[in-house]
C-alpha cells in the first residue's frame, strides 16, 4: 500500500503515449452500493433507494461546500456521514447501530469483479497506476487495503492535499504534480461523467466507465471519449 504522505517517484519514461492510468475511486474501482447491499435485509424495501440517495446527497454536500468557500470545507468522510444521516432520517431509519454499521461498511467497500485482474494487467505492462479521489487518505487506504488491491496502486492522491473537491481544476493538477507527468501522458478513468469532463478539460486522455448504458453527457462521445461497459478493457486502450 503506498503511503499517501510520501512523494511518488515515477518510473522512467517508456516511450508510450501514456505512462500512467489515473482512476477515480468511488463508483469506478469501488462499488459504492456494496455498503448498503451488506445490510439490505435490515433496511427493508427502501434499501436501493437509500443507497442511490446517499450517493446523490454525498456529492451534493461536497459540491456545496466547495462552492461556498474554503472555510466550509469538510472532508469526504464528514460529507458521507452527514448524507447518510439525512437519508436515513428521510426514510425513517432511526437505529443507531444500523447507521453506524452502514458508515463502517462504506469505509470497506468492495471492488467491481474485474478490477484486480485489470490492475494486474497494467502492472505487467509497467504502467504507473494512481487513484485520484475525493476520499481522505485514510478512507482510500482502508478501502483499497480491504479490497486487496492496495499493492496494485502506485500512488494515492486525495483532494485533501488542496482542500477542495472535484471537479475543481486544482484536484486534477495533483496528478501532474505528484506523478511528474503532463496530463496529456496520462489516462484518466472514471464512472462519473462530470468527473470525466473535468479531467478532459484538464488535458487528460479519458475513458468513461458506463456500466448502466446511460446516455452521453457533456459531449464526451463527440470529444472522442470511449464509453466502456466495465474496466476490463482499460489495458487495451493504452497506445
Summarize the structure in words.
The longest helix has 21 residues, at 47-67. It contains nine helices and six strands, in the order βααααααβαβαβαββ. It has helices at residues 34-38, 40-43, 47-67, 76-90, 96-107, 115-124, 137-147, 169-179, 193-201; strands at 20-23, 128-133, 155-158, 186-190, 205-209, 227-228. The protein has two domains: 20-31 and 110-237, HAD superfamily/HAD-like (Rossmann fold), CATH 3.40.50.1000; 34-107, Putative phosphatase, domain 2 (DNA polymerase, domain 1). 41% of the residues lie in helices and 11% in strands. It has a six-stranded parallel beta sheet, with helices on both faces. The relative contact order is 0.18. α7 links the parallel β2 (128-133) and β3 (155-158). With 239 residues, it is α/β, with parallel strands linked by helices.
Keywords:
alpha/beta, 239 residues, 6 strands, single chain, globular, 2 domains, 41% helix, DNA polymerase, domain 1, 11% strand, 6-stranded parallel beta sheet
Brief account:
By secondary structure, this protein is α/β, with parallel strands linked by helices.
SSE succession: EHHHHHHEHEHEHEE
Q: What's the pLDDT, averaged over the residues? A: 93
Q: Which geometry do the CA atoms define?
A: globular
How would you write the strand order of the largest sheet? 3-2-1-4-5-6
CATH class label of the largest domain = Alpha Beta
Please tell me the total number of domains.
2
Category from helices, strands and their pairing: alpha/beta
Chain oligomer state: single chain
CATH fold call of the largest domain: Rossmann fold
Task: Tell me the span between the first and last alpha carbons.
Answer: 27 Å
Q: Mind telling me the C-alpha Rg?
A: 18 Å
* CATH H-tier superfamily of the largest domain: HAD superfamily/HAD-like
Second rung of CATH, namely the architecture of the largest domain: 3-Layer(aba) Sandwich
- State the low-pLDDT regions, or none: 4-15
In helices, the fraction of residues equals 40-55%
Summarize the main sheet: 6 strands, parallel
Please state roughly what percent of the residues sit in beta strands, choosing from under 5%, 5-15%, 15-25%, 25-35%, 35-45% or over 45%.
Answer: 5-15%
Contiguous helical run count: 9
Amino acid at each position: 500500500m503506498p503511503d499517501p504522505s510520501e512523494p511518488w517517484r515515477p518510473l522512467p519514461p517508456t516511450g508510450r503515449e501514456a505512462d500512467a492510468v489515473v482512476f477515480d475511486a468511488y463508483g469506478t474501482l469501488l462499488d459504492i452500493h456494496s455498503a448498503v447491499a451488506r445490510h439490505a435485509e435490515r433496511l427493508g424495501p427502501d434499501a436501493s433507494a437509500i443507497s442511490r440517495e446517499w450517493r446523490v446527497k454525498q456529492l451534493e454536500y461536497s459540491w456545496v461546500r466547495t462552492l461556498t468557500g474554503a472555510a466550509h470545507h469538510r472532508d469526504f468522510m464528514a460529507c458521507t456521514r452527514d448524507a447518510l444521516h439525512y437519508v436515513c432520517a428521510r426514510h425513517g431509519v432511526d437505529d443507531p447501530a444500523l447507521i453506524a454499521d452502514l458508515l463502517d461498511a462504506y469505509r470497506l467497500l468492495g471492488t467491481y469483479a474485474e478490477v484486480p485482474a485489470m490492475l494486474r494487467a497494467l502492472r505487467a505492462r509497467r504502467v504507473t497506476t494512481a487513484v485520484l479521489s475525493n476520499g481522505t487518505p485514510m478512507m482510500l487506504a482502508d478501502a483499497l487495503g480491504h479490497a486487496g488491491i492496495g499493492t496494485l496502486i502506485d500512488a494515492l492522491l486525495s483532494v485533501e492535499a488542496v482542500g477542495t473537491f472535484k471537479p475543481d481544476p486544482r484536484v486534477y493538477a495533483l496528478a501532474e504534480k505528484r506523478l511528474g507527468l503532463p496530463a496529456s501522458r496520462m489516462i484518466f478513468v472514471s464512472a462519473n461523467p462530470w468527473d470525466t469532463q473535468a479531467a478532459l478539460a484538464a488535458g487528460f486522455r479519458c475513458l468513461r466507465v458506463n456500466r448502466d448504458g446511460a446516455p452521453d453527457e457533456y459531449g464526451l462521445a463527440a470529444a472522442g471519449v470511449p464509453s466502456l461497459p466495465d474496466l476490463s478493457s482499460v489495458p487495451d486502450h493504452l497506445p
